Amino acid sequence: MRIFPALMRKRNIPQDPVAFREILPLKLKQRLSVFACLKDHDFNQSLCSKEIEAFQKCYMKNINDVQQKRIREAKGILTPGDKNLTPKQLNILLQRYPNV
C-alpha cells in the first residue's frame, strides 16, 4: 500500500489571506520602542537612554523571575495558578490528593 501519494494529495486549504488578530497583548513593546527610537535618531544610543534603561530594567526583572521559578521548581513548591507543572510538582500534588 502506498501511503505517500495519499499524504501528498492537495488538501482543502483556504486561499484567502487571514488577517492578524491580536488575542493577547504583545510583550515586545519595550523592545520595539527601543528599535524605533534608535532608528529615529540614526542609532545614536545617547539620545535613547530612557528607552534603553526601561528595556534593561524589564530584562533584569525577567531574569530574576526565571531564577525564582527555577528555585521553586527545584524545591517542588507549588505555585497557585501555574498551568505547567514539573514532574516533581505533579508528584507532590498527587501525593496530597490521591483520590481526585
Number of strands: 0
* Beta-strand fraction estimate: under 5%
Query: Could you say which overall geometry the principal axes of the C-alpha atoms support?
Result: flat
The major β-sheet equals: none
Structural class: mainly alpha
What is the overall number of helices?
A: 4
Overall helicity:
40-55%
Mean pLDDT: 81
Quick recap of the structure?
The chain is an all-alpha fold. The protein is 53% helix and 0% strand.
Can you offer a commentary on this structure?
- The structure is a single chain.
- The chain has 100 residues and is mainly α.
- The chain has one domain (25-96).
- It is 53% helix and 0% strand.
- The chain has four helices and no strands.
- Helix 2 runs antiparallel to helix 3 (49-75).
- The two termini are 46 Å apart.
- The mean pLDDT is 81.
- Residues 35-61 form the CHCH domain.
- One of its GO terms (molecular function) is RNA binding.
- Keywords: Disulfide bond.
- It comes from Rhynchophorus ferrugineus.
- This is CHCH domain-containing protein.
